[in-house]
């Protein structure tokens, strides 16, 4: 690495224009030789004593992910009156001290990974690791930074007054990396104007064809979930581990230094507490047991599966008592009842069932925004005359019974179980709209074609049409129930799981839940998700879209971590954001109702809009 400089272009007075080299305490290092000696291996210059002093007596700032997905550009409005220079300098000094203290840990995290056959440093494109690690430590020190993810760069930002400040620990990657001029800081700390000035001053050394707007603002959104992910990985990295894959070993080495720091007490009083007696260690398991746990881990907790496990025993016994010819008929009756319940619960006339036949994990469908249209015709692998249309493959509830869809009764099946992830979605949502507008055509028994020239982001079924989160089916049913299951028994368990996860009956009309002074009609469409916000430790609201055309709530969802773009994830495919008003809705334990508008959507929330939102949420 180069000298560990933390400088702000144009901020120093005329008599001190040479860039400052800062040590772990925030004070200038007198010479470049001293800087290089102190920075040896990224440890001596910025060691943990400085972090310890920052942590002492402080409690980490709570992490707010409710703003994730908000456009970073929306926060760049500068006030008419400039911020006083003293205030700007005070904020930069605080950011500089925190960044200097955290720099060595970010460098250690980067060094656990390789780039062009060598260990990475902060001179390399490692912003996805370095920025979140530095951000976690700065928030631990009480410095309120946010993570921002642009089109291909990640950095930290802080808004104070009418000024926006940038902390970029990997800025040198844009100026030749290790060969960058010495005057380009290792970690940039400064205002947006100072960032522009740095790029202008070193235009000749810039090794990317992109300017600051493309690097820092293109598709830039607040994404504090990156900090939450870094904290989670740090906790995992210092925990007990048995058998790690090569990629997991890299993750452990990357986040273990951060985990060790976060595990330290943050004040002398907590450090003085007596140590708890060590818990007795488990007897070591044999190597075969460790291998089996690695390749066949225990299923993750799932409330829907828990309800199935507690209730399905008698029904399985009944199924086993039926004759071979009677079982399919009984299971088709179950399939009809489950689908009818799903339709009633989600107010749809027809349901599509899509398997991850071409790969894809549940969170990947959520992150991508839905199901992509692809050239998925298997004949393309063997013939130049296959169907090259962009399609989404799915089974239609109007054409096939749920039992036949799940239990291999379809002639087009190509594997014993078509996939382990299943998405259920409304067919009278975007697909119907696409057929009416010409974006889609040729709706058949197992697929629909899309015109790729008219399909935004190639998403054929947006996740706003999903009946719920993508579900992992098959494989775990026997483990969940603790017994060996026949094919039909496993299918019955999966049908009941779909019913429990996506089709639970709405509460009876007129029933209410009282929260403090508020009364919630549980039959209202948003009521269930609104009640999730009561006492939610992550302070996640219900996000919704209210149509400006008819003043009705059209799309909404509880703000799960996977909703990277917030309100924009709820927009119908191809819709104009100007036609909707985004809102966030909370219900506090004392009954206080909070409704806030989204800054990315036009106009304030009027009393009439608030009335519609409260009606959809069942608030009285």
Task: Lay out the secondary structure.
Elements (H helix, E strand, L loop, with lengths): L31 H7 L9 H8 L29 H27 L2 E2 L2 E2 L7 H14 L5 E4 L4 E7 L2 E6 L19 E4 H10 L10 H6 L3 E2 L2 H13 L8 H17 L5 H4 L15 H9 L7 H9 L1 H9 L4 H21 L4 E5 L6 H7 L1 E3 L17 E4 L1 E2 L5 H5 L14 E6 L3 H8 L2 E2 L5 E4 L8 E4 L8 E2 L4 H5 L5 H16 L9 E4 L2 E4 L5 H6 L9 E6 L5 E6 L21 E8 L5 E5 L9 H11 L3
Antiparallel strand pairs: 1-2, 3-4, 3-7, 4-5, 5-6, 8-11, 8-12, 9-15, 10-14, 12-16, 13-14, 17-18, 19-20, 19-21, 21-22
Helix pairs in contact: 3-4, 3-8, 4-7, 4-8, 7-8, 11-18, 13-18
Structural class: alpha+beta
Total helical elements: 20
Question: How many beta strands in the DSSP annotation?
Answer: 22
Return residue spans where pLDDT drops below 50 for at least 5 consecutive residues: 1-49, 74-80, 267-273, 410-416
Q: What spatial form do the alpha-carbon principal axes imply?
A: globular
Question: How is the main sheet built?
Answer: 5 strands, antiparallel
Report strand %: 5-15%
Please report the distance between the alpha carbons of the first and last residues: 61 Å
Spatial arrangement of strands, main beta sheet: 6-5-4-3-7
Overall pLDDT, averaged?
77
Cα-based radius of gyration, to the nearest Å: 28 Å
Provide the helix percentage.
25-40%
Structure in words:
This protein is an alpha+beta fold and 620 residues long. Helices cover 34% and strands 15% of the residues. It starts with 31 loop residues before the first helix and ends with a helix. The relative contact order is 0.08. Mean pLDDT is 77; it is low at 1-49, 74-80, 267-273 and 410-416.
